[in-house]
UniProtKB/TrEMBL annotation, chain A:
Organism: Salipiger thiooxidans
Name listed for the protein in its UniProt record: Xanthine dehydrogenase YagS FAD-binding subunit
Family annotation (SUPFAM superfamilies): CO dehydrogenase flavoprotein C-terminal domain-like (SSF55447), FAD-binding/transporter-associated domain-like (SSF56176)
Classification of source organism: Bacteria, Pseudomonadati, Pseudomonadota, Alphaproteobacteria, Rhodobacterales
FAD-binding PCMH-type domain ranges (all copies): 1-220
Molecular functions (GO terms): FAD binding; oxidoreductase activity
PANTHER family: XANTHINE DEHYDROGENASE FAD-BINDING SUBUNIT XDHB-RELATED (PTHR42659:SF9), XANTHINE DEHYDROGENASE SUBUNIT C-RELATED (PTHR42659)
Highest taxon of source: Bacteria
InterPro entries noted in UniProt: CO_DH_flav_C, CO_DH_flav_C_dom_sf, Diverse_Substr_Oxidored, FAD-bd_PCMH, FAD-bd_PCMH-like_sf, FAD-bd_PCMH_sub1, FAD-bd_PCMH_sub2, Mopterin_DH_FAD-bd
TrEMBL record, chain B:
Record-linked Pfam families: Fer2, Fer2_2
Protein name stated in the entry: Xanthine dehydrogenase YagT iron-sulfur-binding subunit
InterPro entries according to UniProt: 2Fe-2S-bd, 2Fe-2S-bd_dom_sf, 2Fe-2S_ferredoxin-like_sf, 2Fe-2S_ferredoxin-type, 2Fe2S_fd_BS, Aldehyde_Oxdr_Iron-Sulfur, Beta-grasp_dom_sf
Organism of origin: Salipiger thiooxidans
GO molecular function: 2 iron, 2 sulfur cluster binding; metal ion binding; oxidoreductase activity, acting on the aldehyde or oxo group of donors
UniProtKB/TrEMBL annotation, chain C:
Gene3D superfamilies xrefs: Aldehyde oxidase/xanthine dehydrogenase, a/b hammerhead (3.90.1170.50), Aldehyde oxidase/xanthine dehydrogenase, molybdopterin binding domain (3.30.365.10)
Residue intervals of the Aldehyde oxidase/xanthine dehydrogenase a/b hammerhead domain: 31-142
Biological classification of the source: Bacteria, Pseudomonadati, Pseudomonadota, Alphaproteobacteria, Rhodobacterales
Entry's Gene Ontology molecular function annotations: iron ion binding; oxidoreductase activity
Record-given protein name: Xanthine dehydrogenase YagR molybdenum-binding subunit
Listed SUPFAM superfamilies: CO dehydrogenase molybdoprotein N-domain-like (SSF54665), Molybdenum cofactor-binding domain (SSF56003)
Source species: Salipiger thiooxidans
Amino acid sequence: MNRFDYARADSIGAAIAAAGTPGGSFLAGGTNLLDLMKIGAATPERLIDISRLPLDRIEDTDGGLRIGAMVRNADIARHPEVLARYPALAEALLSGASAQLRNAATTGGNVMQATRCSYFQDPLSPCNRREPGSGCGALGGRTRNHAVLGWDEGCIAVHPSDMCVALAAYDAVVEITGPEGSRDVPMATFHPLPDAAGAGTPALAEGEIVTHIRLPDPGGMARNARYLKLRERTSFAFALVSAAAALEIRDGVIVSARLALGGVAARPWRCHEAEAMLVGMVPTRGSFTVAAAEALTGATPSGDNAHKIELARRIAVRALDLAAAGTPDRLPALPASAFAGEDNG
Amino acid sequence: MTSTLNITINGAPHEIALDDPRATLLDVLRERLGLTGTKKGCDRGQCGACTVLIDGRRMNACLALALSHDWAEVTTIEGLAEGDTLHPVQQAFIAHDGFQCGYCTPGQIMSAVGLIAEGEAGLDPERVREGMSGNICRCAAYAGITDAVLEATRASGTRTEDERTDA
Amino acid sequence: MDDMLNTQGHVRLGSSAGQPLTRRDGILKVTGAAPYAADARPEGVLHAVTLAAGIARGRVARLNSAAAEAHPGVVKVYTPANTPALAVSPDEKIHPFVWRMEVLQDDRVRYAGQPIAMVVAETLEAATEAARLLAPDYEAEPHRVTLDDAEPFDTETTAFGRPANMTKGDLATARATSSRHVTTQVDTSAQYHNAMEPHAITAQWVGDRLEIDTPNQAIGLSKQTFSAFLGIAPEQILLRSPFIGGGFGSKAILYGAQLLTILAARDLERPVKLALRRDQVYGPTGHRAPTRQTLRIDMDDMGRITALDHDTITLTSSFDQFLESASNASHSLYAAPVLRTTHHGRRADVGTPGPMRAPGEAPGSAALEIAMDEAARAAGLDPLDFRLLNHADTDPASGMSFSSKALRECYAEAAGRFGWAGRPQEPRQMREGRLLKGWGMGTAQFPCPMFQAAAHATLRADGSAVVETSAADMGQGAWTALAQIAADGLGIDIDKVEFRSGHSDLPDAGVAGGSGHTATAGTALFNAGSDAVRQLADLATQDPASPLFGAGNAGVTARSGRLWRNDDDRSEAYEDILARAGLELIRGEGTGAREGEPTHAMFSHGAVFAEVLVDPDLGQVRVSRLIGAFAAGRIINPALARSQLLGGMIWGIGMALQEEALHDTRSGRFVNNDLAGYHVPVNADAPMVEAITVHEDDPFVNALGIKGVGEIGVTGTVGAIGNAVWHATGVRPGRFPIHPETLI
């Protein structure tokens, strides 16, 4: 990796001030940034270490939770209130990466993580995301894992996070602080969709920092929420496609529904139309199939990946199935896995 | 520009003059301190061979910038045994042949120590397999690894969630 | 090193061969004290980092050496302009196990990933960044990197000089008279060994002696190779390889960056260490080439095979020749009276493939076992019954008898343990909850080669012994299993055996590969021990003061550190015999090799049964049970053999479901040369794997009756999983790895 200056920020204000000049990058857990630096996909001149900022708490808010940006992924996943009220978030987190990485990776880092598109990771390939204006190296290449929703010829990469998919489904809000003050952005629209010129305008302006994730009251969906993830080995793999689903069912009828897809777009793909369609329906596979079809209405292959459309449709149905069946008291041994066990009956 | 890294490794405090901020904890351990038991298999958090305990939690030393871990307490494979007495996890790995070439073994063992301390897998083999899946063993000694972790969990006497619920 | 390994760090569960001793190197490995090549830190060591080519074909037009040299800490940048010359051409083949050495002797790029420069610096961080700063410009030429577009290249020989084509019997007539046939095409993907230890070397010159630490599966052969390319005498080289962090074939063949590091150490007069990054092992260190295999099985009305025809198309590099000999898997497994095997090469701009755990056999078996299941279905027979019907009682290829073959017992044992009986013939008949469940099987087979090995065994005055041979431990357990054999050869307790191994100043132990290392090195050790005991017996039986006097050499037996008369119960301890003769030690020598032309066909066999669960909606597959029974001659250490077999079977899971290295055809570069993109099995992928060994005495394979267990576990397994996937889903896999989307 290139030489850089290293400084630790002791306060949010200091971090923002330090980031106000070009060439700086925030370092938190390091699990993504150091990796990118090692492969030459990121070359910051200055690292501003924010890992010790006082953003390491999970607080109760009125019916919801507020998660500091420096809370480690593992600590969210094992937090009793998360498990009780947002089990699909815990399940998504536990299905991602490895235990070691979850112990190091932070909430903010997870939100900010870069795509795993192999062309983005290869500095010799063109990539609008890494080098605006250079083109999309993936287009016409090995695209089996690339986007089928919301893509543009400027970029066909997908966002790799599992956590963000669950957060999007739960209507989470990203709290941002910067030189101009603080603002909120919904998780579901935090990550920009690409355009012809490239990866779109990043959610964060120069000097801005993610400080918290706010989760609203899940209401009646707390125990009908699941995350399901298709991958090419049983554990420790990025999603081919994934889905977070949550339902509130009263008197055998869906009164509220949430559905977000992962592995399909440059952002966690929240399916509002499908959700609206489900309200008032009986929670059956038939209903879910109709809703899932709606969720993938606009999907088109960005290359050799038409199969992902069908897989995404199917995983949406399955995740809704699982949510309807209810969240198990204890998350399965293989979180978010097709082979999780207890739901096979 | 030289920075000072204060770090406790296997109980011993070190004050290291780091002339290069780029050094990862893994490379500091291996190349500057000679603690070569911690292995480099991918250098990108994709294999687990470099697993150490940082402040009691298992992490990949390859993705830990050394300077960011100033004042941390690190335990490596070299710090596990007490004199000639092996740690129960080490003993269990030998008894169950939980390794072949041995290269991933320090990482597997540190990961297992971390897993047992987390107390969430208990005696459920499937949870152990999932919990150990961040440590790749290309020789594929997984059956022995899982059995070793289960035995060491039993030996640790930690009351686990499984024991509580299964009792 | 030798001293360190004297620790008796294992748990005694019995004694010597046949006992499941824990590993003698166990304590070293669980404490992090076992030294691997990259752990070496000689005083003043410099760090080397190579730069990998970013194009697949062309030349390097420009390197920004100035930028690299200006980076703080950089000592020297090696490019074709300033790299010292090799003693011989990089293309010199001093023996058949030499691939072209890329040592910056010219500016050509022959494949992406080829080293095109090397930076040496005071720190690893500096060398790494300076290599990046070299920012090469290329003159690229059109390249080809896949089986589909590569250039046809037919040759008389495949891997290791085996004939590329073989025909036995009259295929046309057999086909004309057969009542039914099936044709099957199976593609297998490019695979990379991905040993957990990336290739590494630490080199230092001590005077005019070269000391190198580098993981190596063929220490004696490699010393010769280094010596030839460096133009120095073999005696000037000390190669240390006590522990190999996984090899699987990738550390049997030398590669250019090793020589480059040695040249730099000589040039700079300081020790130099090079450890390849994970992405850098993709290209220069060998791989398993992709194959496209077509099989036609002809049968009679009863389902007996009348002809077997197996063709393989595979890829090799543009400059060397190693063809994956997949079709040969059909030579000796099933009773085909008419047999044809063919291979067709294609050249591409990729690194030269090489031996990778069960080279040839693994992809060949995968395709053959899929074809066998299709044939069984065409014949209306259960897959196991079909294989039993076509059991080869003699080797179809050579016509010879098998030296031993307990395959029927393997079928019975594994099928029984698995619960195969009652398996529905039709697919999609079984479920576990909502998941589809399928059962499949495959036959495992692997040949039993022997190489050349030598060993010394020295009995010491205190009754202990030191045995020496340059064996290589890459996890198979050489430090333990070979010591067990040596103890038996000497007739002493294993705790009295000091085993010196893993470096080139010792007698050559031959190649750790081909599943022949334990047999070859073990035979040498056993013979060396026997030689020492023979000398001891001569001393005693000719000495009137000995209770053994007059018994004759053949009249005594060595056991428990004593020689015992066969004609009464008198005995004498080794130390007493030596003391009376006034000797400090007696040294025996032995060799291990197969003598004369083989009179039998020699193979290990096995049967593997797989159960898979498949998500009917998503196509994701998990191998829920994998049970194999193997007949591999004499098992020296059942615990270590089990680990080897389980490891091989889990390799089968990887090959069947996960492993696939991909190039971007436009750039010629890999898109997944890391462990996040190239998936190998993790712990959760192997919930239940069981390996059973079936007793087998083989009087022909070698004096010790050892057949080897390192590779056979991969064979049979891939096909068994593929067949189980068919049974679960009704979809017959046409390629490995099987992708989820092909199953929905």
